[in-house]
Design brief:
Length: 116
């Protein structure tokens, strides 16, 4: 399934969550911008299955150096999704493939992201 996110409101070190239906289930992801590059991940903490942002599009630590689960404190590298601190250290967020169009990002959410 393909999700479309506008690049207009994605400034440096900001993020945007999105939802898409896959096999009849609502799946959440997010995209962030750092260094002029966009990164997309499934919006599921690797510690427990909750969204990182608590549905407010705040995906970063206070200093914006890392992505952070605001429920449990897990910290992830922005560019790799690798967990560098917290209860799931060593795990990795599930990356999503994205393509840039003129004003939008097209993000591919695989069917495997939904449990059978």
């Amino acid at each position: 399934m393909i999700a479309k996110v506008s690049k207009k409101n994605l400034d440096e070190l900001t993020g945007k969550g999105f939802s898409v239906k896959v096999r009849g289930k609502l799946v959440k992801g997010f995209v962030v911008k750092k260094g002029g590059q966009f990164y997309a991940y499934m919006n599921v903490c690797k510690h427990l299955p909750v969204t990182l942002d608590l549905n407010d599009d705040n995906f970063f630590t206070f200093d914006k150096a890392y992505l952070q689960c605001h429920m449990h404190g897990a910290m992830y590298e922005i560019e790799t999704g690798f967990c560098v601190g917290g209860p799931c250290q060593g795990a990795r967020l599930e990356p999503l493939k994205l393509m840039e169009e003129q004003n939008d990002l097209l993000i591919t959410v695989p069917e495997s992201s939904v449990e059978k």
